[in-house]
Amino acid sequence: MRVVVAVDAFKGCLSSASAGEAAAAGVRAAAPDAQVRVVPVADGGEGTVDALLAGAGAEGVRAVARVVDAVGRPVDAGFALLDGGATAVVEAASCVGLDQVDVGPDLPPRAGSAGLGLLVRHAVDRGARRVVVTLGGTACTDGGIGLLVALGARVRDDAGTAVAESGANPLWRFGTLDALPDLGGVDLVVLTDVDSPLHGRAGAAHVFGPQKGATPEQVAHLDDRLAAWGAALAAHGRPVADRPGAGAAGGLGAALLALGARREAGFGYVARAVGLADAVAGADLVLTGEGRVDAQTARGKTPAGVAALGRAAGAVVVALAGAVDLAADDPTGPFDAVLPVHPRPLPLADALDPATTAAHLSATAAQVTHLVVAARRPVAPGGAPQ
Predict the structure, then answer these.
(1) What's the angle, vertex CA 214, arms to CA 196 and CA 252, rounded to 5?
(2) Where are the alpha helices (DSSP H) in the chain?
(3) What's the pLDDT score for residue 382?
(4) Which residue(s) pair with 179 in the sheet?
(5) Which of 127, 131, 220, 269 is least buried, going by the fewest C-beta atoms within 10 A?
(6) Closest by CA position to 286, among listed 251, 311, 317, 322
(7) Residue 356 — φ and ψ, nearest 5°?
(8) Minimal CA–CA distance to 114: which of 168, 176, 158?
(9) Helix axes 16-30, 354-375, angle to 10 degrees
(10) Apex CA 26: angle with CA 313 and CA 2, to 5°?
(11) Crossing angle for the helix pair 16-30 and 48-56, nearest 10 degrees?
């Protein structure tokens, strides 16, 4: 039996590779003769660097740079160097992530994206000629102004003062854009599955601002400033505000698109890079999952992408999750089955304990494997298993 394990990260608990190895251990315990392959996966958000490095093996190099977080505090952020250093992959969440700050109404005026700009600069200084920027999980709604200033853009606030490289949210009092940065021919790729425009009811402030602590009044102010920022970009020949993905990560999408970035779906990019389609070809069982499987999972998240490839290959696809919340009339979504890994309700601290989750993930994968093996047994003419 051929089994492929492609499990997304259990956020705050296990990386994709660690979760995959735990599930694979359960498969091997239940079916020692099974051919098991673990493929790290991600959707272009948090965990993408880890997945791509794991997929690259010895050909990938992890680098670390000292930058700043969303509120200007020093932070060490990792990034990947691939293709002999010609390609760098940087994660917005690694430096301006929402999980690094306290969320509340005081955050939106303070949070900026300068740290990501500094990270991109470090990658270019290391010799990268292509920089892949993964968006998702950010604390900032600044239209990417902080990123652009860190890369050399010249921006002034509403009092005519030049915006510093890092500091308060530069969108909050945005005045004018004087010049965009020049990256000297570096190829930019932005990974996001979010297709929101920069501003408006479906834009960055209205859709994602409340998740970052913004009050209704702050959402309205941010949306007004994003509209002004979009107009400024258009005046410089970069009419990107209405392009899909411009509103991703608080408007970071717009800033990167203004620099000429090519937008790609995060899961598709990672799946191609790690050879997922080839891995599932001929598989009998595909195990996927994430920390929580709910109605959002089927809408472009990593396990749904894995399921589509697995089912196209004719495999049984089972999702394993720390928590499951699906409608009674659609209990499996795009999967053949969805199973919670924890055998009983747990306190949050226990549910997020890596050792506990790995053990439960392994045990559940073993149960799934036992079931699939039993279903594959030949049946005697009288109906009993041979």
Answers:
(1) 40
(2) 16-30, 48-56, 93-96, 114-125, 145-150, 204-208, 216-235, 252-258, 266-274, 276-280, 302-312, 348-351, 354-375
(3) 64
(4) 154
(5) 127
(6) 317
(7) -65, -45
(8) 168
(9) 40
(10) 25
(11) 60
Q: Sign of the C-alpha dihedral, residues 159, 258, 190, 186? A: negative
Record the tokens describing residue 316, joined without a space: 């049984």
Closest by Cα among 268, 301, 304 to 286: 304
Q: Specify the pLDDT at position 196.
A: 92
pTM of the model: 0.86
Spatial distance between the Cα atoms of 66 and 85, rounded to a whole number of angstroms: 19
Collapse the DSSP code of 213 into the 3-class scheme (helix H, G, I; strand E, B; otherwise coil) and give the result: coil
* Distances in whole angstroms, Cα of residue 294 to Cα of each of 36, 214, 261, 306, 348: 27, 25, 32, 16, 18
3-state secondary structure of 63: strand
In the numeric block, the tokens 């007004």 are attached to 224
Strand, helix or coil for residue 71: coil
Residue type, 78: G
Q: Determine the straight-line distance between the first and last CA of the chain, rounded to whole angstroms.
A: 18
Give the torsion sign (CA, 155, 90, 97, 339): positive
- Residue 182 CB contacts under 8 Å (≥ 6 apart), including other chains: 152
- Distance, in Å, from the CA atom of 321 to the CA atom of 157, rounded to the nearest integer, reads 46
| 83 three-state secondary structure | helix
CB 357 within 8 Å of CB 14: yes
Q: φ and ψ at 37, to 5 degrees?
A: -125, 130
**The pLDDT of residue 378:** 79
CB 251 within 8 A of CB 144: yes
Q: Which two tokens stand for residue 12?
A: 């705050």
Across 12-25, b (16+ Cβ under 10 Å) vs e yields ebbbbbbbbbbbbb
CA distance 240 to 151: 19
List of residues 6+ apart from 102 with CB closer than 8 A? none
For 245, the token pair is 């993905």
Q: Which residues of the chain have pLDDT under 50?
A: none
Instruction: Please provide the size of the chain in residues.
Output: 386
Q: How far is CA 124 from the centre of its chain?
A: 22
Q: Are strands 130-134 and 187-191 parallel, antiparallel or unpaired?
A: parallel
Backbone angles phi, psi at 80, to 5 degrees: -105, 140
Buried b / exposed e along 253-289 (16+ C-beta atoms within 10 A): bbbbbbbebebbbbbbbbbebbebeebbeebbbbbbb
DSSP-derived 3-state class of residue 321:
strand
User: Comparing C-alpha atoms, which of 69, 76, 78, 153 is closest to residue 112?
Assistant: 69
